[in-house]
Design goal:
This protein is α+β, with helices and mostly antiparallel strands. The protein contains three helices and two strands; from the N terminus they run ββααα. It has a two-stranded antiparallel ribbon.
Length: 90
Amino acid sequence: MRRAQRSRSLKRVKKRVPSGESRLSFKKELPGKIVCAECGSELHGIAREKPIRFSNLNKSARTVSRKYGGMLCSSCSRESIRKEARVMFA
């Protein structure tokens, strides 16, 4: 095993090669899921990629196009918008 492959940050995956034997293959693990800042639930519609691949994605895959998109889930953002409106108009 090469020195670069001894790192435990690499996931070890057994793959069957055309000769029929199994060999170890190494791949970087994906980053964790993106979660809501308030409630901690998983955010939908946002890609889960490595930083270099994430920067190559188009903007619609990187974030959600609404206020607090990519930071809060839909229910938490709805509540915060309501709170802002109540403060503004009360």
